[in-house]
Every structure is written in structure tokens, then in C-alpha cells.
Amino acid sequence: MKHLLKLLDLSAEEITEILNLADQLKYEQKHGIEHHHLKGKTLGMIFAKASTRTRVSFETGMYQLGGYPMYLSANDMQIGRGEPIQDTARVLSRYLDGIMIRTFEQKQVEDLAEYGSIPIINALTDFAHPCQVLADLMTIRERKGSLEGLQVCYIGDGNNMANSIIVGCLKMGMHVAVACPDNYRPHEDVLEFAKAYPGFKLTNSPKEAAKGADVIFTDVWASMGQEGEAEERKKAFAGYQVNQELLALAKPDAMVQHCLPAHRGEEITAEVFEGHADEIFEEAENRLHAQKAVLVTLMKNK
Ligand code: CP
Ligand code: NVA
Question: In sequence order, which residues have a C-beta less than 8 Å from that of residue 112 and are 6 or more positions away?
């Protein structure tokens, strides 16, 4: 594994290795066992969108691994003024040992990897959020013991989270039901991938998707960059809320996962959110451990 651009590129074995290493690093951190695997290495962190969890977990993670995280705001770089990503990739590859990037187009991330010569990590694009879903899989496996055969349901926008959940969960042997309005379906490439899995279902009905679920996922109705569509989206997603009534259709011990930030009263009720806060904040914590595993996998011995 040279990069983490999207989960479509990873095998189930590679995902399992990252989850195993993440569990180990979490254990070591909780027990004060130092793990400076990236001593002397620098990670550039390019942000073209806002972030709380991703920035803080990557920065802290690099520090805990003995390396140095460098925050780079895309607006303050020359890419913000039109310098091609191909040139940025070749320049940064001469200073840094790895790059984490959060941006709009998936192509920018793929181009960084193509033109640069160091590991590239996708920290969210409009297409995918692989780091988040690795943390989600880690959280589900911690709580349920294993992933194979679990029934996962995603309610809402067919966005970056939906795309990564579908790919990550199907690859790990889980069944996935997605409920979204017709105009807000997951990406065509993801639907094409999912076609080969009999355990995949796409529907307009949140009730149908939630039935018998072990895990219920949701995400915001308007993602970063879609703020102008917020009102139109509120109407389109009105029936796609994770509430107590919907949760009653899932298994009695169903988990709820939300990548955060959450909008109470929109995609999730305050009642469901607070009732499952333990699982949701464990999921947020696991960003740190899962990403440290990704960093070590990609950057150690490079
Ligand atoms: N879930 C997530 O990526 O959060 P941030 O946008 O705060 O980084
Ligand atoms: N779908 C959301 C996820 C935020 C972590 C967005 O892209 O804004």
C-alpha cells in the first residue's frame, strides 16, 4: 500500500492490517507505551476545507509517533492562486515524508499521488472520506467483536461518507442498505462496485433500510461546499432523519455512528444522538488511532 486515496484501492487484508495496528497503537497509547515509529518524519497537512477532528487527530497523531505535522492552509499556498497540483506535488515531495490533503475534487488527490513521490492520504474529498470509515470500522469491530455478516444501514445523502461506507463495509463482508432520495444517490463508480455484492441494497425507504440493522449511519444533509443548497436539501431529506421510530426497526442492540459534525433536529434527533453519544465519541476518538495506523503503514521505513 503506497497511498490512501480511497477505499476502492484497498484489499480486505490491507484494511484488516490497518485495523489491527490501530488497536495495538490504541492499547499502547492508553498504557503509556511510547511508539515513536515516525521519528524525524514530517507530514504536510493541506486543508482547503474546515476541520476539527481531522486536523487535531492528525496533528496529535504525528506528535505521538515522534514526527512533525505541518498545517498548510490551501488558501495561503500558491495552489490557492492557481499553481498546478502537479508542481506542488513535485516540490513538496522534496521536503516532506508524507502529505495529508482535504479538498474538493478527488482528482487533486489522485494527481498529488501521481506526480509526487511520497505517500498521499485523502483526509476527505467530495467523493470519499476513507480515514473516517477506517475509524468507523475500528469502532464497530471493537463493540461487536467482528465485522463479517453485520447489517449496516446508511440514511441520507449519497455523499463522501455514503461512498466510503458502502465500499469499506462491503469489502469487510458486511451487508449494506442505503436509503436516499433519487437525486442524491451515491457516486456511479461506487454503485458499479456495489453491484457485485448481493448484500447491497439501495432504496428510497429509510424504514426498509433500517430493518434489522446492527449499525445505523447518517451524515449531514449539506456537506462542506454545499452550504448554498442547504434549504433545498432540508426539503429533499425531510423524511430521512434517524429518530427513535426508525431506530425501533433496527436490532435492539444497534449502534449509531455519525462522523460529526451533527445537526440535531435534521439528520438525527437529539434523543438518538445523546442516547448513542458513547459510540459516536468513541468513533471520533478512533480517528486518532486509525490514522496513526495509516501513517505508520505508509511512512515507516520509507
Ligand atoms: N468527521 C470529520 O472529518 O470531522 P472534521 O470535519 O471536524 O475534521
Ligand atoms: N459529508 C460531510 C462530512 C464531514 C466530515 C462533508 O463533506 O462536509
Answer: 85, 88, 89, 99, 101, 120
